[in-house]
Design a protein that fits this description.
single chain; alpha+beta; 88 residues; 4-stranded antiparallel sheet; 34% helix
Length: 88
């Protein structure tokens, strides 16, 4: 009797393991290319709206996004590296 219980538990564990393996989703990779970037972020307000400024340090691209009721919307984008080159 004990053998059947142990055998049943082994079969159950194998089935559960297969189920977990089949439901396992691969990791989402949002960064395409050589790797992840370095970001500097600053939060602020403009016209009573929450704004987040995100600067990608390696490329010099600046993006301003605002949040509106859980939605994230891009407000503006600018290439800061071109400004720096122009000042030199």
């Amino acid at each position: 009797m004990a053998r059947w219980i142990v055998a049943g538990l082994i079969v159950l564990n194998v089935l559960l393991g297969v189920g977990v393996y089949l439901r396992w989703e691969p990791k989402a990779n949002a960064q395409i290319g050589k790797g992840t970037g370095e970001y500097a972020t600053v939060a602020g307000t403009s016209y009573n709206q929450s704004i987040v400024y995100i600067l990608e340090v390696n490329t010099g691209k600046l993006v301003a996004v605002r949040t509106d009721g859980g939605k994230v919307m891009a407000v503006a984008a600018h290439d800061v590296s071109a400004d720096i080159k122009r000042l030199k």
